[in-house]
Amino acid sequence: MSRNAIEITGLTKTYAAQGNSPAKEALKGIDLTIPRGAIFGLLGPNGAGKSTLINILAGLVNKTAGQVSIWGFDQDVNPRQSRAAIGVMPQELNLDPFFSPRGAMEVQAGLYGIPRSQRRTDEILAMVGLSDKADAYARSLSGGMRRRLLLGKALVHHPHVLVLDEPTAGVDIELRQMLWRNVRKLNDDGMTIILTTHYLEEAQEMCDEIAIVNHGEKIVQDSTANLLARLDAKTLVITPESAPLNGLPTIPGVTATQRPGGALAFAYSRAETSPGAILDRVRDAGITLRDVATEEPDLEDVFLALTHAQTQNLAKSDR
Ligand SMILES: Nc1ncnc2c1ncn2[C@@H]1O[C@H](COP(=O)(O)OP(=O)(O)OP(=O)(O)O)[C@@H](O)[C@H]1O
User: Fold this and answer.
1) Which CATH number characterizes residue 123's domain?
2) How many DSSP H helices and E strands does the chain contain?
3) From the CB of 44, is ligand 1 less than 6 Å away?
4) Is the pLDDT of residue 70 over 90?
5) 10 Å Cβ neighbour count for 53?
6) Which of 11, 13, 24 to mutate to test the pocket of ligand 1 (most atoms within 8 A of CB)?
7) Per residue in 188-216, is it b (16+ CB within 10 Å) or e — as a string?
8) Given a cut of 80, is residue 158 above it in pLDDT?
9) What value of ipTM does the predicted structure carry?
10) Are residues 98 and 137 in the same domain?
11) 188 and 250 part of one domain
């Protein structure tokens, strides 16, 4: 039995040409392995192919080529088992307006063939904070409540893998906290979580491992810690007692800038110099230090560096 939650090889999706729009190759042969028990981040700019990939996993979009296996079940060989192994909280708030949350959960449980005695409707509604709206009409629910219900529906069949597609886009702090609390708890209980988000801070905080896709290709997959360590750039930020009289010291290999408010930022590469050497030159220049701090690169820097490099390579290969 595979130890991976998801195994994808050579996944390709070409949307057929329609009217004036030409055919679009949204996924260009992606290989992706997601370990069991992970909180996995799938990141990429708009149009990179994330939703296409997730919709293929959910069985909502047919792939053009490649293999997809969920919890050891090949989608083409064991479609029912592979579908039962995954629950997806979609991006769009598409709910039947005539069902109450309880009704919608019961219908979903019926679709998955869960016997009444094994349904956990009330427990899940409580978990997503919808107990007091259990019997309200879906059309009277706010956007945030609809999202809660979509999460509840994704959990009805207690899947091994939970996919959250942009779950926190435009939601308030309370809902965001509820989501992350539940994600951590479900993960602690053994559920594998796959998450797409535009908020890189969130991915950095939540995910153990991350894949970045761009233009339908996977450009990197690594642990969050390794991705952050890839960037060698660091910044030393010095708050001086008073503005430097003779301007900023010039230090080879270091880019010095003055920030609004007076702090001096020295961007350097760890491979080339050390904070100690920079501080020596700053003191030599007669600058008295009030405060010193270092800034690490964050996921946003890694993301920009990688997607930018890929876009440049693609442009070169087009020439
Ligand atoms: N049904 C469709 N028919 C034709 N083209 C499509 C269809 N769905 C998506 N595309 C195209 O495929 C590419 C990938 O889209 P996809 O929605 O998978 O990206 P994404 O990474 O999820 O972006 P976003 O973050 O904006 O949702 C885009 O160029 C998009 O326009």
Assistant:
1) 3.40.50.300
2) 10, 14
3) yes
4) yes
5) 31
6) 24
7) eeebbbbbbbebbebbbebbebbbbbbbb
8) yes
9) 0.96
10) yes
11) no
